[in-house]
Amino acid sequence: MSKMNFGPDLLPKPAPKAAPKARAKEGDVGRRSFIKLLSALTAGAIAMPNKAEAFNLDEFLQKHFHQMTDEEKQKTMARLEGEYNEKYSREDFSVDDSGPQPGVKYGYALNLSKCIGCRKCTHACVDENNQHRGDEERGDQIEYIRVLEMEKGSLDVEKSVHDYTHEVPAAGKFYMPVQCHHCNDAPCVKACPVEATWQEPDGIVVVDYNWCIGCRYCAAACPYWARKFNWVAPRIPDEEVNPDTHYLGNRPRYKGVMEKCTFCITRVRKGLNPACHDICPTGSRKFGNLLDTESVVRRIIDQKSIFILKEEVGTDPSFYYFFD
Predict the structure, then answer these.
(1) Which class for 194: exposed (0-12), middle (13-18), buried (19 or more C-beta within 10 A)?
(2) Which end of the chain is more exposed for a tag (fewer CB within 10 A), N or C?
(3) Residue 221: band (very low, low, confident or very high) from pLDDT cuts 50, 70, 90
(4) CA–CA separation, 312 vs 164, rounded Å?
């Protein structure tokens, strides 16, 4: 396979800040709110607040993340922290809005020779990212990482199993964890009708939950099963919630919106690794800056025979697999 080119020209460019429509003056509901209201009235996809859900005008009129000024962001983060502290009976919630570092484009490499299918990465991801714990009978828990079990010698993901319950690693099997691939030509971004999802300059594909209208077009467009929909208000026990959050990442979500892996944005923008990386007992997972020729992930891509899942769909992902 030819070597990958990660020169500066391939650094993803942020989505241009959309100029407000001529009729969307200060204080107007705006396109997102109009579409959300229209969807609720015509398809019943998003329920209007009931007696148990207090209507929040500030939340309803909130601008797109790219359109907020620094002062508006500061007020929004403070409002969200207050709401989460009250909801989860805490006093330590933090909602960060830090941006990407220059000269950084994150990438992931996963060694399939070492993965044992233990799913510790899946569980660490759930804890770190405040994912819906779900109901055991309904089986509606949200998990960003699916670990596929396949016969050794096969790469037919269509015949894989992800709900195995037997002891691992099983004889004659190998395992492939799949999550968001943070594509540089992401079909989910193209599919969103309200620009609620985009790729940041550091390569992370994010979602503005307050802008998402829950249409699920992004889920239909994603070839990696990476988008998750909140059919109910996420249930997270107060004692299990992670209060260290990012606006574009692991802050608690709402009923009726999409969510996904963000490479643990609240961690990586502080110089840490994703939670799934650090919990792996076999060292299968490698993460780093693709633009740094000395980073471990870049050395793997330059020196190993790597392959891309569903390369034929042309999404140009930032997630790579390799064998020893």
Answers:
(1) buried
(2) C
(3) very high
(4) 28
- Residue 201 has a CB neighbour count (10 Å cut-off) of 16
Query: Which one has a higher pLDDT value, 59 or 312?
Result: 312
Yes or no: say if 203 and 220 are a contact pair by the CB < 8 Å rule: no
Strands 205-207 and 197-199: antiparallel
- Show the beta-strand stretches assigned E in 119-226: 146-151, 173-178, 197-199, 205-207
Whole-angstrom CA distances from 8 to 252, 263, 291, 298, 307 are 34, 21, 7, 14, 22
Domains identified in the chain and CATH numbers: 1-324 (3.30.70.20)
What DSSP line would sit under 61-126, residue for residue? Answer: TPPPGGG--HHHHHHHHHHHHHHHHHHTT-S--EEE---PPTT--EEEEEETTT-----HHHHHHH
CA distance linking residue 20 with residue 303, whole number of Å: 47
**pLDDT: which is higher, 300 or 9:** 300
Q: Which long-range contacts (CB under 8 A, 24 or more apart) does 96-99 make?
A: 96/245, 96/246, 96/247, 96/266, 96/269, 97/65, 97/73, 97/246, 97/247, 97/248, 98/246, 98/269, 98/270, 99/200, 99/269
Q: Amino acid identity, residue 302?
A: D
Structure tokens at 7: 């020169």
Q: What amino acid is encoded at 234 in this protein?
A: P
For 161, residues 6+ apart whose C-beta sits below 8 A from its C-beta are: 148, 149, 150
Angle at 127 between CA 122 and CA 130, to 5 degrees: 115
Reported as a single tens digit per residue, the pLDDT across 153-197 is 888 888 999 999 999 999 999 999 999 999 999 999 999 999 999
Q: Give the torsion sign (CA, 185, 191, 193, 198).
A: negative
DSSP-derived 3-state class of residue 43: helix
Residue 186 is which amino acid? A
Contact yes or no for 124/250 (Cβ under 8 A): no
